[in-house]
Amino acid sequence: MSVPSIRTALPGPKAKALIDRDSTVVSPSYTRGYPLVIERGSGAIVEDVDGNVFLDCAAGIAVNATGHSHPDVVKAITEQAGKFLHMSGTDFYYEPQVRLAEELAAITPIAGGVRSFFGNSGTEAVEACLKLSRYASRRQNIIAFLGGFHGRSMGSLSLTASKAIQRQGFGPLMPGVYHAPFPDCYRCPLGLNTADCAAECLDFIDHQLFAHVVTPDEVAAVVIEPIQGEGGYVVAPDQFLQRLRELTSEHGILLVADEVQSGMGRSGKMFAIEFSGVEPDMMAIAKGIASGLPLGVTVARAGLMAWPPGAHASTFGGNPVSCAAALATIKLLKDSLVANAAAVGAHLQTGLRSLMEKHPLIGDVRGRGLMIGVELVRDRQTKERAVNERNAVVNAAFQRGLLVLGAGKNAVRFSPPLVLTKEQADIAVRIFDEALSEVGRRR
Length: 443
Ligand SMILES: Cc1ncc(COP(=O)(O)O)c(C=O)c1O
Known about the structure:
- The chain is built from 11 helices and 17 strands.
- It is α/β, with parallel strands linked by helices and 443 residues long.
- A hairpin with a 2-residue loop joins strand 13 and strand 14.
- Helix 3 runs antiparallel to helix 9 (320-354) and helix 9 (320-354) packs across helix 11.
- It is globular, with a radius of gyration of 21 Å.
- The two termini are 35 Å apart.
């Protein structure tokens, strides 16, 4: 299929009709950046209801790890669906769930044995991390990071500090949550130069929070995204994660890695925290794990996940069809897609960085593997955030047949399916270049 191929004004007539129907019956809380109405997808290519063909660098918010409807995943889903759809792994046993727990034990970077708890989404995976952290430590408080996104149910929303609108009107949230600055070295929250940034953000926890707000012996866990996703695709420096591990270990605090967005091969390693060599105590995994079927998993050191029957469970969690999809996904990731994410990700990042020469709007290009953020600024010196321009670029890309999403206030995220080829990455760079030119001309 030739990509992109835009045959109608966007949205086309069929897309427009569906959006009109949606507008009266679906929750208006969803953030629709542009009017895409999908009909079908294959690999990194998406066709809309009017026959327009797009290159997908959004992947359903970093979910379609193996691409749209990968035949191996579809086969696994179909075979399992033909056997049984549901039996509740909370009450009974079935092989796909056990096998998936075994696979996760083999691929998660936690030595000495782990156990898995199965839910249906990222937020549920984080909720289980919160509950288990409190249960296992018998401590109440949690430290999270400004800019972080951990979900929207009440517990995980209490950790989320990405956009204030996500919390506005929903308080009071869970007590006992404290936020520390995230080491965003491009825009240091403490106004330091890059060399000191990671260390100083860590010192904020050690010398400010622990000294003035909460004693470390009452902190159950520190929860961190090794690469902030919704916050703008910001990579935590390895040294910061290493020092955070030391600090948490020193005080008996659990380290929880939220790899909902950065995990399952997206970063070019199976999990982004592996770049730092740090072993967390617990991980939240979702999004890419089942290539699009709903599944969230909390993986924890076996000794920690020692809660009794009835302490935590989920009717749908670990659905057998989702588990089958996850097993097929993990095989594809191990066989080739993690390596592809690393290789094509490096290629894409180089291409996007080369656009900096031509487009002063680009302030920063960063990321790992196929998790790349391009931050747009009005001025490279002041780093004034180019919020409207970012939205305009995302829209201009859509009009040209490239699907990307915003992240944070003013970054564009590239989170394509991990099957993206180098040729497709070049197409993405070309269209993004054109979109930047169009918005640059309008300024
Ligand atoms: C890092 C992170 N954690 C948790 C979540 C919540 O996942 P879900 O939307 O599946 O509840 C997200 C979603 O974007 C995420 O990026």
